[in-house]
Q: What sequence folds into this?
């Protein structure tokens, strides 16, 4: 089984780190001005969107890594406020894959293609054989099982573009087998 997912450490950003203009510092901690949990999630998703939108700007060069880290930090905060983990993982994987394909690895595990491949495999809600079996008659399955199949398909969306950058034979084999199954998922 692949190692636990590697995520940006939210604590590596100091108390002076500005995430978004709606963030303010209170007693040394970043806080968001919001009234409900949904407001908090939306504020953090706004921070994610602002930073993520700049990640694909080639003129920003290596600064794109910092923007991606900031966007992933915002995702982790949205998840801590109650956002769906699968959505966060899908967005996080896409960002990491974009940086890996555009800028390449740099020694940080966050930008290591094999670590990303292992992280994708680690969070899949089904094993490959179960997903393959369920996909044969997915129309007849309960909605919860169809949702699990969709989660597998969506979580694997970054794997196809990541594939040429992988070097670990175990990760390559496992992802190749999953990508074959993915073609049959709803």
A:
């Amino acid at each position: 089984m692949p190692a636990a997912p590697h995520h940006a450490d939210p604590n590596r950003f100091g108390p002076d780190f500005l995430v978004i203009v709606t963030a303010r510092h209170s007693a040394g901690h970043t806080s968001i001005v919001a009234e409900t949990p949904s407001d908090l999630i939306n504020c953090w998703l706004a921070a994610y969107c602002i930073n993520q939108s700049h990640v694909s700007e080639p003129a920003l060069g290596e600064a794109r890594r910092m923007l991606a880290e900031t966007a992933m930090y915002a995702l982790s905060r949205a998840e801590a406020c109650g956002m769906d983990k699968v959505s966060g993982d899908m967005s996080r994987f896409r960002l990491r894959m974009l940086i890996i394909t555009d800028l390449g690895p740099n020694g940080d595990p966050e930008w290591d293609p094999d670590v990303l491949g292992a992280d994708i495999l680690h969070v899949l809600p089904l094993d490959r054989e179960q997903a393959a079996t369920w996909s044969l008659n997915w129309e007849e399955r309960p909605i919860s099982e169809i949702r699990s199949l969709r989660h597998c398909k969506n979580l694997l969306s970054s794997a196809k573009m990541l594939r040429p950058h992988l070097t670990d034979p175990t990760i390559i084999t496992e992802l190749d087998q999953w990508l074959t199954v993915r073609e049959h998922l709803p």
